[in-house]
Amino acid sequence: MNDKYYMKKCFDLALKAKGRVLRNPLVGAVLIKDGKIISEGYHHGYGMIHAEVDCFNNLKEDPKGASLYVNLEPCSHYGKQGPCTKEIIKRGIKKVVISNLDTNPKVSGIKELLDNGIDVVTGILEDEGLKLNEKFFFNIKYNRPLIALKYAQTLDGKISSNTGDSKWISNKFSREYVHKLRNDYDAIIVGKETILKDNPSLNSRIDGGIDPVRVILDSNLSIEKKIKDFKIFDLESDKKTFIATCKYSTNKNLNIIRCESKNNRIDLNDLVNKLYAMNLGSILVEGGSTINYSFLKENLVDRIYEFISPIIIAGDRSKSAFSGRGVDNIKYGYKFEIEDIKRFDTDIMIGAKNVYW
Ligand code: AOF
Ligand code: ZN
Q1: Which of 76, 81, 98 to mutate to test the pocket of ligand 1 (most atoms within 8 A of CB)?
Q2: Is 52 noted as a catalytic residue in this protein?
Q3: Whole-prediction pTM value?
Q4: Ranges for the CMP/dCMP-type deaminase domain (predicted)?
Q5: Ligand nearest to the CA of 45
Q6: Which residue in the list 40, 52, 112, 306 is annotated as catalytic?
Q7: Can you tell me the ipTM of this complex?
Q8: Shortest-distance Cα residue to atom 15 of ligand 1
Q9: Using one digit for the tens of pLDDT, what is the confidence trace for 178-226?
């Protein structure tokens, strides 16, 4: 078996913790001795033991002289966990094979391994590794969560009719895929209007799905008195529902994120920073055209999932995905590149990423 085979194994192990690592990376590790896998491990979740240590804990034989495969450069700092490099050195590992360097400035594990006479190979399946941990690398680079917008529109680019009706534009296969997306993001943001209008649960209703933290934008806290009316405040979920608001509240039954205000609305940069401080590394925004435009204007749209359904509803008053004044010239448009095109029966989904990252 070659390096790529074992690195792929690390990716598979790492993915077992998908949805659980928050701002941390997905990391898997395998130990190879005499051409055999003698142990496997992975980073189980935010704040929990690292993949390398998990791999050592699962050992049934002495790993002296073994090669360690791990998709991320082993850490060398004291964080919530101790440095993996110390453990690697202590166990007498001969060679460490890595996919990606850790861009966390606190980490310089390779140097420490080399200084201790351990062979190091890097860059195995590097692009796949970068993709696997794109949220982690984004978080480190921009010091904020990765933010994606999701919406469904008609063939003529409308997200609701002239009466505000939007149920349903996309088909059930597209909507099933949204549950998968909710599983992939740490938090979901919606506007108060969505709660009032649709009474959604905003959980991930797929097998083994992990719910996102739910955040409702409500600058005036007008939902405060009505929480009994909405499912989202009475969910069986291990994640909380928060209200982001500019108002103070003494209501102990509410989870409030108090935000600065900007133009009488929630300052989205402040909110996003607060969510990041709660270790949430990725956010899915399921808003309407006003919220979508607010994020766009603040340069807080890193990715878009656009579902397109082949119907035309027309109408000057039917909304499109982004409101606001818009740009005067096409050349001033916000630029994205297409990452992904999926077909869901009669619908398609376009995945696009902002060109700046
Ligand atoms: C590894 N193996 O499995 C992971 C690493 O607070 P801590 O101690 O958990 O440290 C988190 C940082 O450690 C994280 O930002 C990243 O740089 C690295 N994660 N490193 O050697 C692992 N999860
Ligand atoms: Zn570590």
Answers
A1: 81
A2: yes
A3: 0.95
A4: 1-121
A5: 1
A6: 52
A7: 0.97
A8: 24
A9: 999 998 999 999 999 999 988 988 888 888 888 999 999 999 999 988 8
